[in-house]
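Worked Example 4.2. Consider the chain below.
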Amino acid sequence: MKNIKDYIGTIIILIMAFLIYIFATDIYNILDPVLFPGFSKIGPKFYSSMPKLWKSLISSLKLLIPGYFGAAFSGILLGILIGTNPRLNKNLKPIIFALNPIPPSMMTPYLIAIMPTFYLSSVAVIFIGCFWPFLNGTINGIVLIDQKYLDNSKVLELKGFKKLFNVILPAAAPSILSGAGTALNFAFILLAIAEMFATNSGLGHFIQYYADFSDYARVISGLLFMGGFIVIVMLGFEKFKKKILFWTLNENK
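Applying the procedure from the previous section yields the following structure tokens:
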């Protein structure tokens, strides 16, 4: 009950948007019926498309999971290496600044050309987009650690992996998880782009396929299904983040 009260504003906004759309389509036909089909058409199409939508979701996860977690592993690992080595950080920072802003979507045609399969090129697009937030979040989190934590670790004679897992990573965790959240947002955006151009399955392909045939009832069905899934994942990530960062002042307020 408490969780529902926390999102009462969101529920009201969604209900209002739903009613406005019904009035503008099914009742008064203000909007173009082809581009904006009413829920009287979307509902049956959504129901009949459910088997294909679930199949598309599984296909999307096969791209999303290796791309995202591969970026998490390599980004955090390399970030620890760079963040704990001031000289390495100083020398690599200009290179990171140069490569970071390049949109991964612009590399899609090139990746399709050099990768042996469309699957690998799609995973690579997601990997590249998610890698930089993890890398930057880890480096910044380590570089900005309060000096008193490092001084305390010296007093306790913590070195190597003990210092890493007991001091550095916990202190850098807020920044790392902030980067993880940014990477997750990028992952869904790049997933849709990759599936529209480099695969023949997945939620992005589902939406693009029916858009080509002007079946906008199924297009909206795909968007609603994908949006609902993203909301569930992001809320789950926020709960995970709060559980990991239970000790932070902001979470205790």
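The first helix runs from residue 2 to 6. The mean pLDDT is 88. Compare this with Example 4.1 before moving on.
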